TrEMBL record:
It comes from the Bacteria. It comes from Pseudomonas agronomica. InterPro entries: ArsR-like_HTH, HTH_ArsR_DNA-bd_dom, HTH_Metal-responsive_Reg, WH-like_DNA-bd_sf, WH_DNA-bd_sf. CDD domains: HTH_ARSR. Coiled coil: none annotated. NCBIfam families: HTH_metalloreg. Pfam families: HTH_5. This is ArsR family transcriptional regulator. Residues 2-97 form the HTH arsR-type domain. Signal peptide: none annotated.
Length: 251
């Protein structure tokens, strides 16, 4: 792809995401689940025919993927890069509007999925604690790696660190959190920690949003194993109360 084609490609994707109904559809798919066009039409508050046209455009630009199972057709984000781009745009969107305040419920800001890993206040605290305790080490320009004590901690929880390191994706990296405007943990390690939390019932997943509910057991485990506070008492840095942005439904 030459420079001119690249520029055209970027502008086409930007234009597709800029349409409010498409934005809502894409944000609804950021929990990694697949949804039908009917469900996405309801979320975007458009007719079924309009939703189909929007989804066809998003599919054409490789932003969503179509899954056909018998008579059923489901849509999901094309891959984690789309989720990462949307998460970054959410941060930029807030910075571009100095009077912005999110209309997203507190519990969604506290803990939610960011495609296949955990985001929100709880995830940022966990990220910070892993670094503070020396379990996670920042390798400048290359993301993160585990220390010996960090590897022992996670192996003790049943996470196969070597298998994660062998994956083709990045092992561990910062992912800028739109509500906290600070990093949470992404990459293969971030995904493994979310799956561990779900498997051990530290968190529960909402069926109709990206929200994660922290269980009583999860609260104890976060505090006992990691030293992470699970109180909902941290607000986004620099947040200023005002009118909600009409095109930014961040469920």
């Amino acid at each position: 792809m030459n420079a001119e084609q690249h520029d055209v490609g970027v502008s086409q994707v930007a234009a597709a995401i800029a349409e409010p109904a498409r934005t809502r559809m894409l944000c609804a798919l950021m929990d990694g689940r697949a949804r039908t066009s009917t469900e996405l039409a309801s979320i975007a508050d458009v007719s079924a025919s309009t939703a189909s046209a929007h989804l066809a455009k998003l599919k054409e630009l490789a932003l969503v993927r179509l899954h056909v199972q018998g008579r059923h057709r489901y849509y999901s984000l094309a891959d984690k890069r789309v989720a990462e781009a949307l998460e970054a745009l959410m941060v930029i969107g807030q910075n571009a509007a100095p009077t912005f305040t999110s209309r997203t419920p507190d519990r969604l800001q506290f803990a939610r999925t960011c495609y296949d890993h955990m985001a929100g206040t709880l995830a940022v605290r966990l990220h910070d604690r892993l670094l503070e305790a020396g379990w996670l080490l920042d390798v400048e320009g290359q993301g993160y790696r585990l220390s010996e004590s960090g590897e022992a901690l996670l192996e003790g929880l049943g996470i196969d660190v070597q298998a994660l390191a062998a994956q083709r994706r990045r092992f561990a990296c910062p992912c800028l959190d739109w509500s906290m405007r600070r990093p949470h943990l992404g990459g293969a390690l971030g995904a493994a920690l979310l799956q561990l939390a779900i498997k051990r019932k530290w968190v529960t997943q909402d069926l109709d949003s990206r929200a994660l509910g922290l269980t009583a057991n999860g609260r104890r485990e976060m505090a006992g194993r990691f030293g992470v506070s699970a109180e909902i008492d941290v607000k986004p840095t620099g947040a200023i109360a005002s009118k909600p942005a009409p095109t930014m439904d961040l469920r």
